[in-house]
Each structure stands twice: as C-alpha cells, then as structure tokens.
Write a sequence for this structure.
C-alpha cells in the first residue's frame, strides 16, 4: 500500500526532466525506467491500483538512493522517500527481483548485507575490536561496509583516535541503516535500531563517532522519527576529526602524497547531512593540492552504493567508472575517499589511485 505522502511526492512532479540528466543509475544503464521520474510514475500508477510486477520492482531496487534527484528539484520532490516504499510494496506483493531476493533473505536473518572479504586487515581489525573496553566516554560506529570490505579505513580511524588520546569503545551492532534502504520502514528495521540503541546505552558513551555517513543519517535523522532514543550525541567521523584538527587538539603536518588529488563527496554526507566542508578543511590542514571535480559538494555525482553493489555490481561498476572519468578530467592522479562505500567501490572498479582520508590523517599526525 503506497502512502499518501509517497503518492503526494510522486504526483508533485512538474515534468521538467532535469533529474533525468543527473540520475547516475539512469546514466549508467541508459534505461529510462531507471530514472527518478519513471520511478515516480510507477508509484503514481501503483497508488491508482496498478499491480506491482517484477519489472516495476526492478526499477525500485536499481536506485542507488544517492539523493541527486532530490537536491535540485524545484518541487522538493524526494524520490528516495517513495522508492523505499516501492521496495516495501514489492516485498509485500512477493515481487522481489531475483538478484535481490538472497540479499533480503540474508538481511532479514540478521546477517550483514555487505559480504565480508577475509584479509589480513580484517583479521587485524577484529583483533583490535576484541581488545577494547566495554564502556568508554566515546563509542565508535564503524558500519558493515568498513568492517567487511575496507577494514583498513576502520583501522586508520581507530589509530587516529588512539593518537589523539580519545578513550573509546566500538559498538558492533548494526544501526539498521542499510536494512532501511533495502526494505523500507518496516518493523525489522526498527527492531534492529532498538537493539543498537540498547547496545549504545550499555557502553555509557556520551558521544558517538560514526564512520559511515549512512549510519550517521540513521542516528541523526531516522531514529528521532522512529522514536528510538539514543542518549549519546552522534557526529560523523569526518566532522569529529575536522573539529579535533581545527581546534588544535590534534596536530598534523603536511601529508606525504605525490601528485594532484581530488575528493569524492560521499552522497549521504554531502546531501542528507549537508556537510561538504569538513573533508575539505582537513585536506587544507594537511596542505594537499586538490582539484574539484565537475559536479562536487551537494551536486556530486554518485560513485555507487554498497547496498546496490550487493545485488547489482554491474550498475555500480559503471557508475564508479563514470565518476573516475570525472576525476581524470581534473588532471588528478588520485581520488580521496571519505566514506567506506566510496573507498570500496573506487578500489574495486576504478583504474586510478584511491586514497583513504583517514589514512592520510593518520600518516600526518605529529
Ligand atoms: S526535477 Fe523534479 S519536477 Fe523535474 S522532472 Fe525531476 S522530479 Fe519532476
Ligand atoms: S536517488 Fe539517485 S539513483 Fe535514485 S532516482 Fe534519484 S538520482 Fe537516481
């Protein structure tokens, strides 16, 4: 059942088609049905009694939830709101696309959506986590993409915190953020969020340092809507470290990097959390030479999402390659990733050097 709110948003379109030209899944696939307006039309038709089928469901699940279409739309049209509902509807109607079904099954069984790749860094991260205290003034939320696919980014963040003298523990439970994007606002998501909140409470932490902007968005924006109370105040790891550096509680020197860099703005950080300054402040403090890509800050073109990559790596692969072309056009030799998802996708699909922002900071601490 499509809600009135979702239908109101879908019906609000003025058919200017601006979003057609910016949707990265539409561009990567060349398929009209994978654009925001097509997804909106589907929702309008479903709300008027049309039956969900697998092709319509496919259109919902191929969205990267990057938020580009919401950013510029004059009507304040927000496709991600009704796309999540479209996903819930497809599940309720038992019309889940074939490639998505195992991911949903895994997620509803409480397993991670982003599958782990075993490596030395992951073993080192797990060992590090097992040595941490159960309670601390700060609790770090690493998220499943970092823990399972780019553990070096997680290790780099923890190393920076160690050097800054921050007393922390790590919360191992999932916030429910990725499950929310996969299946929409359903009971299982709120249960996962409530379990996270209980775990956060046990740590006694007053502050949460959140590595993945997806988790930060859930904690800051979704939890209050879901009436899930977390006492500790959440900040993204990028904003937290920017604050440490600019307040001179953490001293850094010039980063030892060669060549010109460019920054990939994480979708959720730039658009949902409206933070495009923290990473740039840090790069300035590190004395790096960087150039802006075409489409940056809130307009940044998405390099893909870890969720979409879990069942449509073909689409995210193409999205990343298109973004890497943007990077190369600046003349940059390397892209800096400031979120786990971008680091994972750029490494897996890009033919350009990729640097982890947290690794850069860690190597530059005095
Ligand atoms: S930009 Fe907004 S109004 Fe224009 S076609 Fe897209 S959704 Fe409709
Ligand atoms: S959220 Fe991103 S991928 Fe999804 S419809 Fe909007 S622009 Fe396209």
């Amino acid at each position: 059942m499509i809600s009135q709110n979702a239908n109101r948003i879908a019906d609000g379109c003025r058919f200017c088609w601006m979003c057609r030209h910016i949707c990265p899944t539409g561009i990567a696939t060349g398929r009209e049905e994978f654009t925001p307006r097509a997804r909106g039309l589907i929702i309008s038709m479903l709300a008027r009694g049309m039956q969900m089928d697998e092709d319509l469901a496919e259109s919902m699940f191929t969205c990267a939830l990057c938020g580009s279409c919401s950013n510029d739309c004059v009507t304040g049209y927000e496709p991600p709101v009704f796309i999540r509902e479209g996903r819930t509807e497809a599940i309720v109607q038992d019309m889940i696309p074939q490639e998505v079904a195992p991911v949903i099954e895994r997620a509803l069984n409480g397993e991670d959506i982003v599958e782990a790749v075993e490596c030395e860094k992951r073993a080192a991260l797990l060992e590090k986590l097992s040595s941490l205290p159960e309670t601390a003034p700060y609790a770090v939320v690493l998220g499943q993409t970092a823990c399972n696919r780019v553990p070096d980014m997680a290790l780099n963040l923890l190393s920076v915190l160690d050097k800054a003298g921050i007393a922390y523990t790590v919360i191992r439970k999932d916030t429910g953020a990725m499950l929310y994007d996969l299946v929409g606002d359903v009971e299982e998501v709120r249960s996962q969020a409530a379990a996270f909140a209980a775990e956060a409470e046990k740590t006694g932490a007053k502050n949460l340092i959140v590595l993945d902007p997806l988790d930060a968005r859930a904690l800051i924006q979704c939890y209050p809507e879901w009436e899930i109370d977390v006492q500790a105040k959440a900040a993204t790891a990028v904003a937290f470290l920017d604050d440490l550096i600019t307040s001179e509680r953490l001293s850094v020197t010039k980063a030892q990097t060669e060549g010109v860099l460019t920054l990939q703005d994480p979708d959720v950080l730039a658009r949902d959390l409206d933070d495009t300054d923290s990473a740039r402040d840090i790069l300035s403090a590190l004395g790096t030479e960087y150039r802006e890509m075409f489409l940056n800050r809130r307009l940044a073109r998405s390099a893909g999402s870890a969720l979409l990559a879990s069942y449509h790596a073909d689409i995210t692969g193409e999205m990343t390659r298109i973004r890497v072309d943007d990077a190369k056009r600046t003349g940059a030799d390397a892209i800096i990733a400031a979120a786990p998802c971008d680091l994972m996708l750029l490494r897996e699909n890009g033919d350009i050097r990729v640097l982890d922002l947290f690794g850069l900071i860690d190597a530059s601490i005095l």
Observations:
- Strands lie at 138-141, 168-170, 207-210, 233-236, 261-264, 290-291, 334-337, 353-356.
- Residues 4-98 form one domain.
- The chain is about 55% helix and 10% strand.
